[in-house]
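yo, SseB protein N-terminal domain-containing protein is done. seq:
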Amino acid sequence: MHDNSSMSNDNFNLESSQCRYGYEWISKLRSAKYLVPCKTISAKAGDELEMAVLISPSGEKFLPAFTDLQELEKWPFEKHQIVLRFFDNLKYVVLNDPYSLSGMIINPFGDRIVLKSAQIRQIDVNVESVSPQNARSGPDMRFLRPRRKFPELGVLLKAYFKRYEEVYSVYLMMATELGKTSPHWLFLIDFDGEKLSLFPELINVIHAFMHDGESFEILKATYTLLQLAAELGEPIYRK
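structure:
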């Protein structure tokens, strides 16, 4: 839910620097934590957080996110409450509410980055377009065996997926872009259906098992990726 209370401002516009959606740029975007203004509203089932929304001069609504406290201090409205969220959390807020939100804007009152809904979807496509063939033989990407195990996460996923009959298995491996980024965790989910109905809550489950400085991504598994994952290890969950 969103606080739409006239959060328009003359200093807010949609001009932003051009961004190249390369893998390294996307990796940094997704691994960072963002400060998001919210307020608590009363609800019958208890208190609920409502994220703030910025309204552009043309009437478009954007979810604001800040990279640090210095940028957050530029927020000209009352700061009821601030929450910390990853890009993937915010991504699904936008994609699950396409008729109300036009996208998200990072550091709206500084060196801003505007990501409209179509661009956010394209980032998803760029992440999922990494092919295992290129990763194993080309200069860009490679997949690795997991460097540690997650037995507690496996137990939690077994209980969690009881609600999802369409989830069949979860594989874990690591991915790295040669010479540019440290390896990050890659969770492959073999399931039927749309990821928008499954991934947002699952992101929060997995976050609790990440060490400081670690990042991860969740992908809907393809047959080729499942073959590669099976070569690198056993699934951490199987129906």
